Amino acid sequence: MMRKRARTSMDSTIFDVWKREVGELSSRNFAHRLAASEDVVLRLDILRKLEKHKGCVNTVSFNPDGDILVSGSDDRRVILWDWETGRVRLSFHSGHHNNVFQAKIMPYTEDRSIVTCAADGQVRHAQILERGKVETNLLAEHEGRAHKLAIEPGSPHIFYTCGEDGLVQHIDLRTSIATKLFTCQSVQHQNYMSDVQLNAIAIDPRNPNFFAVGGSDQFARLFDIRKYKWDGSTEFGQPVNFFCPPHLVGDENVGITGLAFSDQRELLVSYNNEFIYLFTGDMGLGPDPVPTSSVSDASDAGDMIPDHHSVASPADIDGNAKAAPQVYKGHMNCETVKGVNFYGPRCEYVVSGSDCGRIFIWKKKGGKLIRVMEADKHVVNCIEPHPHTMMLASSGIENDIKVWIPKAIDRATLPANIEMRRPKPRRWMHRMISPEDLMLQLVSLQRRRTRQERSGENSDARRDLLQMLLTFDGNSDGSSGDDDRDDDGDTTGAEECST
């Protein structure tokens, strides 16, 4: 008896062509299926490198049309690229005094309005005038580094920012007014830190009233802007929902570096020293999570990462059992603040960078790892999908941007050496990279303490100061020695670009 041959990606494509021709598949759905084909992902290759920055490239993003790529770097410059030709359309100084962490083009502004945030804590607005002239102005400030901003979908005026001071701000470019919404508070004051240092913020594209933030603890918090009273009559800061894998509830050694919403309102959360998890709305812990004892054996998270094809296993939860979030394994996220993203016309894939300098691509459904691509000599931090095609842009510790398109003749296979040992848990969120960085943080804390002393509440700042000094002392034991050096004996810059 003959065994039935398994259908390949090419077989499925031919079958879809036949269905389209006989009218069983619309042209729109055919285009989506073709674009989301695994064969397309397996043929991704570097089209070109965009080389102009003189420092680590910390942010890449597209304009709504997808013909312009904007980037920001440690050199404090913002560059607008014609990525198809590799030509620089415009390069200007951002006005920041330190590394640019994010730069985005506001929609429906003819690509003339750009917002940025940076390591100096500033949030700035750049307006492109006639003949390439650029004016930048300060919109808001954070006490400490401002890692991310999020634009309200379809709005040319409104966006949000978050920073290491835990503050979330709402900014309207029509008035240039920054409204301080709240300072994110930790659950039961973990780690002596009353404020959660925020690294990521994302807005639900299906309902822009909801936005999520994540940072130096294990919880992704979902907020509803409709609960904010713009006259300041009530305090706004209580999330409407919390998200966390069951085995990480109560774990003080992890934090969140990246967040992303899918078009189906799923929330993707990337953890340091851990994995990436996908949550649906019914997986939330509610508005008042209560830490419990360990509820699972770390979801197969032992000393080794056993199987890069593994999927989420149901958590052994007592009482009201909920579906476990999908988990994505294989990459390493210990050294830098890495983003995470969806990829494909209907968010069929999950993409992330890694400390090993590679790009990892998983199938969203099932969590199967299908592609690993060499993309940086050190670390890949940013991966930005094109808004309309299966093109990717990536950046990291190196000074260039890689543009990826499906052009390879041969289908790629997974490398054999992607099994990596699980990192030793450490509280890297509070690690200082240098005495100079420590002094900058101390100045920021002193400002807070002065304000709180005026109101008679300075215990939070004292706890923060104690934790900072203890962490700095604990990470000054020479652990960042030869491992952080390149072939020339110089430091790779991974620590400098991690914050």
UniProtKB/TrEMBL annotation:
WD repeats (start-end): 50-91
Query: Quick one: where's region Disordered?
Result: 447-499
Q: Which InterPro entries match?
A: DCAF8, WD40/YVTN_repeat-like_dom_sf, WD40_repeat_dom_sf, WD40_rpt
Listed SMART domains: WD40
Q: Which residues form the signal peptide?
A: none
Pfam name, any one? WD40
Compositionally skewed regions (Basic and acidic residues) per UniProt = 452-465
Source domain of life: Eukaryota
This protein's UniProt keywords: Repeat, WD repeat
Q: Where is the composition biased (Acidic residues)?
A: 480-490
Q: What is this protein called?
A: Transducin/WD40 repeat-like superfamily protein
Species of the source: Forsythia ovata
Highest lineage ranks of the organism? Eukaryota, Viridiplantae, Streptophyta, Embryophyta, Tracheophyta
